[in-house]
Please model this.
Amino acid sequence: MSDIVFLLSPIFVFFILGFVLQRARVIDEAAAAFLLKLVYTLTLPCLVLSLFPYVVISQGMLILPIISGGIILGTLTAALAAGKLLSMPPKSYAVLASGSMIMNLAIVMPFVKSFYGDEGLSRLILFDFINGLATFTLAYSIASRYGASGHQGIGKRFLSSPPVWALIVGLLMNILSLRFNPLPANILHSIGELTIPLLLLALGASIKLSKINPLYLAAGVSIRMLLGFALGLGLAELFRLQGIDRAIAVLCATAPAGFNTLTFASLEKLDMDYATTFVTATMIIALLIMPILLTLL
Model:
């Protein structure tokens, strides 16, 4: 038990610090958004490039994107059915559908890093490839269908995503047995190490809860996390994953609703109160259950 506390204490300290700084008005909404953008455009690509040229890619790792796709389709189908059953207004319905299928792996990343190190992170990033693709295509198409502006072409954001290109370059370097020289490798590693602290500060500063229909919240939490967990576990068993591959599949499947749920709700003028509460509630639940899952897996 003391080992778990030692490993995970920095995660909770940084997250709580982000919340405290938000309450003290040191980190406002704009600052939190800047931190997330900095991670997305700089530190995460550096982290990816510091990992993938050196990781040994196993058969189990290549199954993870397939499992990611299965979870996305399963949770989306359940969300669409639940929204109809609850007769949700269109703008809330779109939030449930898009939020249930998007996995916020940023909150899972620190736990994976603490327990499984770089091997775990490399698997999580591969799992996130399909998650990111579905986010900027399928999830956004649902949001725009029920939204106000009907933006088109957001899928281009995925294709111009720095982490995606970093992953492609890293995998090519791995296949071709190319490696960075010690100096750039050390710089990439140092910048990449900032990813998790900055993420936790930004996530802690992003906590927001509003009064919404409890049935809507229960539906979102149940589909995104409970059904996600069941699908992750079932698909891991179906593909006979073992060890770290199995653990990453289940942990990622149980992730909270993704932050792009808020982005899409804002762009399309959907139900922002529902979106912020859905994302925040699942994020807090994830912080509480991830240590338990880590001990069980």
